[in-house]
């Protein structure tokens, strides 16, 4: 279930915009000119991607084939990567490479002994071209197993420039300014925010941005690892801050009840659809794809974003998600699989998908000119520019029973909090109880 937030959403919402950008350093994106050293070999890759995401990743695999001579085969796993890959390993049909969508799943694979450490060449590239935080999230017990190829920027607030202009407000710099701007938008006839409360994962993202900014990265890391209890005063404070928004009927389209009946695509529709009900919607960079593909909005003109603002004197948060490439020990062609990872680590590979749209790379060496439009360039610059202050989506680091299951754990408890935000302390206690059970299991 968890994976719907950054993959199936982006697959139906890819930023398929203009295709005119060039690769790093200019010139064609083609990966030709290799020595065809892998001719006659096939690399099997498994991942959750489908639709336009699978199609765009295939372009990357085709570029690898053109460079090395290897054939590739992509297998779409659906949401439950862990179960599908486990059954393939047991059946003697393990893929060579898996694109892993959660830190928790990567750790699970490593602890089961399924993964090969990255080759020295790939490790060297990661060390040189990525912020250390991406190496941390790809490592288990000090060994680097995962290469983060695709990232999501989950600290972006999307807005209708017309709605803000009509209200006479500018993109805010702080959370309090955002709520104040929201009231001004509301006074002009639209609700401030469309909140996708029907999808519990969106509420975890709201909480994570507030918590990271307000409590700081050290406490964020401790809470993500459950080394800090959810009953900590910092959690109660973040819930109180979030509750201030949730209980304000001027700010939330349809009020709490309306939000609980709004899924993610509908929240984007309420801002960018034919009958706007709100001026702003918070979610990741993939909002742009829905606005463009489903509602024909010109990104940067009819739909734009501002960074999730700083909360309570903290720094502006940068929360990310991402897909890490790993090589399975039991793959029939793990050696060629590692060559694919070495290729995916290059800006050349990232440029192929960046040009197609619907993609962000954490690779610092990827020329921003490779991206298809100015907004994609801006989100990529923000993600890479955040360096080591980026934090991976907290619920994606948690056991699925707590951080990634519909109708249970954090998703359900934050939906309950949206329904009635009057008791942040009580909600924190319930979150701690659910987390303790999940981490123990």
TrEMBL record:
Alphabetized, the UniProt keywords read: Signal, Transport
Asked whether the UniProt record includes Transport among its keywords, one would answer: yes
Q: Which Gene3D superfamilies match?
A: Periplasmic binding protein-like II
- Signal sequence segment: 1-23
Q: Does the keyword Transport apply?
A: yes
InterPro entries for the chain: Bact_solute-bd_prot1, SBP
Q: Which family does it belong to?
A: Belongs to the bacterial solute-binding protein 1 family.
The name of this protein is Alpha-glucoside transport system substrate-binding protein
Source species taxonomy: Bacteria, Bacillati, Actinomycetota, Actinomycetes, Kitasatosporales
């Amino acid at each position: 279930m968890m994976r719907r937030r950054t993959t199936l959403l982006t697959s139906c919402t890819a930023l398929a915009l203009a295709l005119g950008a060039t690769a790093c350093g200019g010139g064609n994106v083609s990966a030709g000119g290799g020595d065809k050293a892998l001719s006659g070999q096939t690399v099997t890759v498994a991942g959750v991607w489908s639709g336009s995401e699978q199609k765009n990743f295939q372009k990357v695999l085709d570029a690898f084939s053109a460079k090395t001579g290897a054939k590739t085969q992509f297998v779409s796993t659906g949401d439950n990567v862990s179960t599908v890959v486990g059954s393939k390993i047991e059946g003697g049909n393990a893929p060579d490479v898996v694109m892993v969508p959660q830190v928790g799943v990567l750790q699970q694979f490593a602890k089961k002994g399924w993964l090969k450490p990255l080759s020295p060449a790939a490790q060297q590239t990661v060390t040189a071209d990525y912020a250390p935080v991406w190496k941390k999230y790809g490592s288990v017990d000090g060994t680097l197993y995962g290469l983060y190829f695709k990232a999501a920027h989950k600290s972006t607030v999307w807005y209708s420039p017309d709605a803000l202009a009509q209200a006479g407000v500018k993109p805010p710099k702080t959370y309090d300014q955002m709520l104040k701007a929201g009231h001004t938008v509301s006074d002009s006839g639209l609700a401030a925010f469309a909140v996708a409360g029907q999808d519990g994962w969106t509420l975890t993202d709201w909480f994570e941005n507030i918590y990271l900014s307000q409590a700081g990265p050290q406490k964020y890391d401790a809470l993500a690892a459950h080394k800090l209890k959810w009953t900590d005063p910092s959690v109660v404070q973040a819930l109180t801050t979030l509750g201030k928004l949730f209980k304000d009927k001027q700010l939330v389209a349809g009020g709490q009840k309306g939000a609980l009946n709004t899924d993610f695509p509908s929240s984007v529709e309420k801002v960018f659809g034919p009958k706007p009900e709100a001026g702003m919607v918070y979610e990741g960079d993939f909002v742009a794809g829905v606005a463009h593909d489903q509602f024909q909005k010109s990104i940067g003109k009819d739909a734009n974003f501002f960074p999730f603002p700083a909360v309570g004197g903290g720094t502006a948060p940068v929360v990310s998600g991402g897909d890490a490439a790993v090589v399975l020990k039991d793959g029939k062609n793990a050696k060629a699989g590692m060559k694919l990872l070495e290729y995916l680590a290059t800006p050349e590979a990232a440029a192929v998908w960046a040009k197609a749209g619907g993609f962000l790379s954490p690779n610092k060496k990827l020329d921003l000119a490779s991206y298809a439009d100015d907004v994609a360039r801006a989100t990529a610059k923000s993600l890479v520019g955040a360096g080591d202050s980026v934090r991976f989506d907290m619920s994606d680091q948690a056991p699925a029973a707590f951080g990634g299951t519909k109708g249970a754990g954090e998703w359900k408890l934050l939906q309950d909090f949206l329904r009635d935000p009057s008791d942040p302390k009580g909600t924190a206690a319930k979150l701690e109880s659910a987390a303790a059970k999940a981490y123990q299991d």
